Amino acid sequence: MTQYAPNLDAIARLAETALADIPPELRQYTRDLVLKVEDFPDDGVVEEMGLESPFDLLGLYQGVAMPLQSVSYAHPEPHRVFLYRRPILDYWCETGEALDDIVRHVLIHEIGHHFGFSDEDMERIEGE
Questions:
Q1: Which InterPro entries match (predicted)?
Q2: Rg over CA atoms, the chain
Q3: 63 dihedral zone (left: phi>0; alpha: psi -120 to 50; beta)
Q4: Number of folded domains in the chain?
Q5: Among residues 56, 60, 65, 17, which one has the least CA distance to residue 38?
Q6: Residue 102 falls within a domain, yes or no?
Q7: Which residues does 52 contact at the CB level (< 8 Å), separation at least 6?
Q8: What DSSP state is assigned to residue 58?
Q9: Could you tell me the strand order of the sheet in which 59-62 lies?
Q10: 1 is a domain residue
Q11: Residue 128 clears pLDDT 70, i.e. is over it
């Protein structure tokens, strides 16, 4: 029996399910987030972040974190969370973790950036 890697839509469905599981008191602040699933980060992101490979990034938040927004803040571009399918699938194959758990973790991590948490903050919270 041949198995196929989940496509972009399948990863998006996993992400939407994970987003629906976020507690309502937090989810209300994600209404303006645009969720995008792409195979890889674009070349500009790879270069800007100094990545050795596009496989080095599972997800990305683009926008202005909530604590940095002011009353006069105008939304020139939507806040976006990108999930990168191919790096996620590689991680899935390497670790054997459940794919839905990986997608949930990456999504929540990127939403954490929307709330203004640093990577260090999120590592500490996960460790507690």
A1: Zincin_1 (IPR010428), Zincin_1_sf (IPR038555)
A2: 15
A3: left
A4: 1
A5: 60
A6: yes
A7: none
A8: S
A9: 33-38, 79-84, 59-62
A10: no
A11: no
Considering the chain, what is the average pLDDT of its residues?
84
Q: Are 63 and 109 within 8 A, CB to CB?
A: no
- The encoded tokens of residue 13 equal 């469905």
CB atoms within 10 A of CB 57: 18
- List, in order, residues 6 or more apart from 104 with CB less than 8 Å away: 14, 18, 21
pLDDT of res. 97: 96
- Reading the block at residue 74, the tokens are 């105008």
**Residue 83: both structure tokens together:** 């999930």
- DSSP assignment letter at 30: G
Nearest in space to 8 (alpha carbons), one of 28, 31, 38:
38
CA distances from 21 to 9, 64, 92 (A): 19, 24, 21
**pLDDT classification of 85: cutoffs 50, 70, 90:** very high
Confidence (pTM)? 0.82
Can you give the residue range of the structural domain that contains 68?
8-127
Does residue 98 lie within any of the structural domains? yes
CATH of the domain at 98: 3.30.2010.20
Is residue 52 situated within a structural domain? Answer: yes
Phi/psi for 79 (5° steps) reads -75, 130
